[in-house]
Amino acid sequence: MARADSLRMRAGQIFCACDIDGLPLDLDSLPKEASIRRMALAFGASVLAQVLTLSALPLASASITLPISSVPWPYLAMLLGAALAGFPASLLIDKMGRRSAFALGASLGVAGGILAAWALMARLPQPFIIGMLWLGMAQGFGLFYRHAGAMAGGAGGLVFGAGVIGALIGPFVIQAAQDFGGPLAPAYALALSGIAHLLTLALAVTLPARSIEIETKEAEIQRPPKRLFLRATVLAALAWLGMTGLMAQAPLAMIGCGLSFSMTATAMAAHLAAMYLPGFVIGRLIVRLGALHSALFGLILLVLGAFSLQFQGDIAGFSLALAVAGFGWGVATIGATAMIHRAGRPSMRALALHDISLFLAAMAGAALFGRLG
């Protein structure tokens, strides 16, 4: 399916109105760079919101009375929201275009950050969990940026790598929240995550509008083989299962070792930066090893980092172990994504099924390994 930009279809103007995504054209001769940059920056802002949320979540959850406190309900709600967003995100992108879909996801993030911050200060568990659900939905929409980048001139890795920017900015924002808010720092961090999604919203609404669709016959579109698609989904799901269990345990383990909120946020930011760093280097690795072997290599790194975490006791050790695990997650996730997109053009529903599988695996990892008790 090709799309046309409705803003170019004006009376009295005669020139090509076709968008570039998915068309067999010389992409270097078309002005795609601005769109790619906007998607990359929007994904970076989405990752910044993720850093702020994940850094504040352990302390926030511990300071509020939750039913069956040994279960990480807010974390599970966030992952559930991301899973629930999969099919709506794919359908909106397919039917209404990237701008509408990503703007809706970012709006949910703005509302979720504000609601979660208010509920935390008011010590209200139910609204807090709803706010985390909305923040998770925003994350589910944001994850589709990597697919959109992969379809727009094969820049999925670059868009994914832009998450490093958000991860590196995160510790400075957390430190400012702690200096200004003191004991209310987790609530301020959640509110700031909503503001980060507001930046994502501003970038999303500037993406090219698409309202005209030119259908091509299904038989003419090369889809990835089902067996390959299933293999890629299983590999990525294993990476997400291990990563969410690790991310649920690590902040509390660091706090148990006497590390402060800002120091914990620094280690988590190093972890998240390493998660998205492979976006800048994955191309060469895939050329040398292939997408499948790259994903397997990433899983090995993830296991090594997670295993070494239990032997750490200071900020340097935690940061290194989390960085190794995060880098492995990034390699495995992008490798699996490359397996799918290099084999053909997947349908939006197939991509939704892929991402939903990842978030369901993430929920399983949080439930199995991330208990708070």
Q: Quick gist of this model?
A:
The protein has 373 residues and is mainly α.
Topology, please?
Blueprint: E1 2-4, H1 33-62, H2 73-84, H3 86-96, H4 98-122, H5 125-143, H6 145-151, H7 156-161, H8 163-181, H9 185-204, E2 212-214, H10 226-256, H11 261-276, H12 278-289, H13 291-309, H14 315-342, H15 348-369
Antiparallel strand pairs: 1-2
Helix pairs in contact: 1-4, 1-5, 1-6, 1-8, 1-9, 1-10, 1-11, 2-5, 2-15, 3-4, 3-15, 4-5, 4-9, 8-9, 8-11, 10-11, 10-13, 10-14, 10-15, 11-14, 12-13, 12-14, 13-14
Give an account of the 3D structure.
The termini are far apart. This protein has 373 residues and is mostly helical. It has a two-stranded antiparallel ribbon. It has helices spanning 33-62, 73-84, 86-96, 98-122, 125-143, 145-151, 156-161, 163-181, 185-204, 226-256, 261-276, 278-289, 291-309, 315-342, 348-369, and strands at residues 2-4, 212-214. The longest helix is centred in the middle third of the chain and has 31 residues, at 226-256. The protein has one domain (32-208, 223-369): MFS general substrate transporter like domains (Growth Hormone, Chain: A), CATH 1.20.1250.20. 74% of the residues lie in helices and 2% in strands.
